[in-house]
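[scheduler] slot 2 assigned
[scheduler] job type: sequence-to-structure, two independent chains
[scheduler] chain ordering preserved from manifest
[runner] begin chain α
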Amino acid sequence: MEILKIVSFAFVALFIFILFKDKRNDLAVLISLAAGAIIFLFIITQLTDVISFIRNIADRANIDMVYIGIVLKILAIAYLASFCSEICKDAGAGSIASKVEFSGKVLILALAVPILMAVLDSILQIL
């Protein structure tokens, strides 16, 4: 199971992080960043499987791939912004973390406009 690998790696990284936190805070932050990046690399293969599944379902349901692409971009922005924000918080940069979260929300809103317009067009056609 992938989660066992991830959790095991995270505990090892956490142990190393705790060892260096009091003595060399700069190394502790780098360990945290490296662990986060490696965990992210662990799950990339799972993400590609999910994306291909969503595309197959969209093809079967005759949903325009433009909208599926927008939804996938929105999901990517949400996950990456959250991931980056948590890393910034771990490094003690809460103000940068809040800016990353805000930027992610604005980008998601900007990407959602075409979907909102399509929904409004559909409603107007029904009326």
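[runner] end chain α
[runner] begin chain β
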Amino acid sequence: MKVLMLHGINHNMFGKRDPKQYGTITLNEIDAGLRSLGEELGVTIESFQTNSEGEMCERIHQGYFEGVDAVLINAGAWTHYSYGIRDALAILTVPVVEIHMSNIHAREEFRHHSVFGQIVTGQICGFGAESYLLGLRAGVSAARSRA
């Protein structure tokens, strides 16, 4: 089983960007934690990060053609306005789990709405880096229940 982890805009700056909100964990550390849990669950994790909306759409399309079993996405700010990424995700026929480190519902008003909400399998937010691990467990469970 292969799971695609998509990291969005500014996530390459985790560990430096707004430590009060996101802590000091880096993207490499998040990915290492996902790979470790993936090994326990018997799945392969492929991570991708970009600050380009078009590149994100292209990677989603590639995941479709590769036949990934589940997709995890923390699109960052794109969550709230990128209909292009939403439409790319809607092409997928596998479980898609939306992840956020912070509780987007307890932050600024514009962050309360996800344009992905109606098309994803589920959303996990507010648990810091643990949100990624919870998302992986949920995505793998949903993928296995479809098999």
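[runner] end chain β
[qc] chain β: Strands lie at 2-7, 44-49, 70-74, 96-100, 122-125.
[scheduler] slot 2 released
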